[in-house]
Design a protein that fits this description.
This protein has 451 residues and is an alpha/beta fold. It has two domains: 3-39 and 220-410, Glucose-6-phosphate isomerase like protein, domain 1 (Rossmann fold, 3-Layer(aba) Sandwich), CATH 3.40.50; 45-216, Glucose-6-phosphate isomerase like protein, domain 1 (Rossmann fold). The protein is 45% helix and 13% strand. It is built from 18 helices and twelve strands. Strands 1-12-11-7-10 form a five-stranded mixed β-sheet, sandwiched between helices. Strand 5 (167-171), helix 9 (177-185) and strand 6 form a beta-alpha-beta unit. Helix 5 runs antiparallel to helix 13. The protein is globular and about 65 Å long. The protein starts with a strand and ends in a 21-residue tail after the last helix.
């Protein structure tokens, strides 16, 4: 079970932390928000309670496992959750293992960014004859996804391979371009429920298909999320991790701490911070309140990697502006550990001999946490006893629910993202899409341009 420690969010552990009075005063507000979110039955809750998504994955499991590679085509919420799952639950050298070593599961690649060097390198790695392409887009209209879809489809056609034998779509049940092509060409298409936004969709087929292709225990993942949801629904704030996450960030925001740093002390869990970054940023960064006033709300998520970023960011976190809270992610027991041998006897190195790398990592986490606390900089810890599917499922649910609670507390809609539209429209216009010719984007007055 995932555990949480909020001690260093509070006085007296951190000077300038949350006081007892502030905590007591805020609890009813947060409990009310919990009640409201539970009653609203958001899409990210419904999806884990609906068995049909897991069934859809099971139904195609044999077909999926007949391939050697899975290429996931998607961006933002249509890829970040799957990337986080893959990085957390497979060893770093997964794609270099033999099929036997992978127990028959698939190598996995992602086409997210439209960086030609990256895309070309992925395509060089795979043989289309033994590859399944999962084209994932809630809207079915995202330019990056549709560009990659056409590239891989072109590749299949050049090789004389039938697209419907190598492509699966994951998209809205009714709307969008991918759905249209799916029904016209009988391409298999799994569903993203209409009320489930991309950044909340990791526990739908969006994350479940890639997870099952690499052998993740999908049932454990969903069980973890379901059990976490039970705790998320608890109106007793101290017993509810999502409520505590929301309460702490809400109260620290009031104290001017508007930056949320997520810092896993684990390379395998680093991509969880990427997933969280989109969730927190797109959900909470809003111009208008629910009543239509301009509020320009939001908390800025930042990712950092322990211990690497101690040697890059920590100076700023310690002595720079007091505008951050830090969330440490700790792993209690790694799958593997490495012994540091005792080679030298000199005092400056001998203390390391005979210790394990995990001991050093843990000591550095504590050192960072305590030094920040001593300097009045608040933090919290999320503790993974081990890295496994069940706890990853829990993590997703706790943070999705906490994000929905923050939406309530900040009085904004956490489920839309109107701010990304204008950029998309300008791109369409620049790329010559019909009906977007009229989009205006005035050239800037030239000031300093160095050629
Ligand atoms: O799944 P889609 O519709 O392709 O969208 C991808 C991403 O693009 C966004 O709409 C932002 O541009 C995200 O909210 C979403 O996760």
């Amino acid at each position: 079970m995932l555990r949480f420690d909020f001690s260093f969010m509070f006085e007296p552990n951190v000077k300038g932390g949350i006081t007892e009075e502030e905590f007591e005063e805020c609890k009813p507000l947060v409990a009310k928000a919990v009640d409201a979110v539970v009653k609203s039955r958001p899409g990210f809750v419904k999806v884990i309670l609906d068995r049909s998504h897991m069934d859809a994955i099971e139904d195609i499991n044999q077909w999926v496992l007949s391939f050697n590679n899975l290429v996931v085509i998607g961006i933002g919420g249509s890829s970040l959750g799957a990337v986080a799952l893959v990085n957390a639950l497979t060893p770093p050298d997964w794609n270099y293992l033999s099929k036997q070593e992978r127990k028959g599961y698939l190598r996995i690649f992602f086409l997210e960014n439209v960086d030609p060097d990256q895309t070309a390198a992925v395509l060089d790695e795979i043989d289309p004859r033994e590859t399944l392409f999962a084209v994932i887009s809630k809207s079915g209209s995202t330019a990056e996804c549709l560009a990659h879809y056409q590239i891989v489809r072109g590749l299949l056609q050049i090789r004389g391979l039938k697209p419907s034998n190598h492509i699966v779509f994951i998209t809205d049940p009714k709307k969008g371009f991918l759905r249209k092509i799916a029904s016209e060409e009988k391409i298999l298409a799994l569903e993203i429920p209409p009320d489930l936004g991309g950044r909340f969709s990791v526990l739908s087929p969006v994350g479940l298909l890639p997870a099952s292709a690499i052998g993740v225990d999908v049932k454990a993942l969903i069980d973890g999320a379901r059990d976490a949801y039970v705790k998320c629904s608890d109106l007793k704030v101290e017993a509810n991790p999502a409520a505590m996450i929301a309460l702490c960030h809400y109260l620290h925001k009031k104290k001017g701490r508007t930056i949320t740093v997520m810092m896993p002390y684990s390379n395998r869990l680093y991509s969880l911070a990427d997933w969280f970054r989109q969730l927190w940023a797109e959900s909470l960064g809003k111009k208008y309140s629910l009543s239509g006033e301009v509020v320009n709300e939001g908390l800025t998520p930042v990712k950092a990697l322990g211990v690497v970023d101690q040697h890059s960011q920590l100076q700023l976190y310690m002595e720079g502006p007091d505008d951050k809270t830090i969330t440490f992610i700790e792993v209690e027991k790694f799958d593997r550990d490495v012994l540091i041998p005792s080679i030298h006897t000199e005092e400056e190195i001998s203390y390391l001999g005979g210790k394990k790398l995990a001991d050093l990592l843990k000591s550095e986490l504590i050192g960072t946490e305590r030094s920040l606390a001593a300097n009045g900089r608040p933090s919290m810890r999320v503790i993974f006893p081990t890295i496994n599917a069940y706890d990853i499922g829990q993590f997703f649910m706790y943070y999705e629910f906490a994000t929905a609670l923050m939406g309530q507390l900040l009085n904004i809609n956490p489920y839309d993202q109107p701010g990304v539209e204008l950029g998309k429209q300008i791109t369409y216009s620049l790329m010559g899409r019909k009906n977007y010719e009229h989009i205006q984007f005035p050239e800037p007055v030239k000031r300093v341009v160095i050629d």
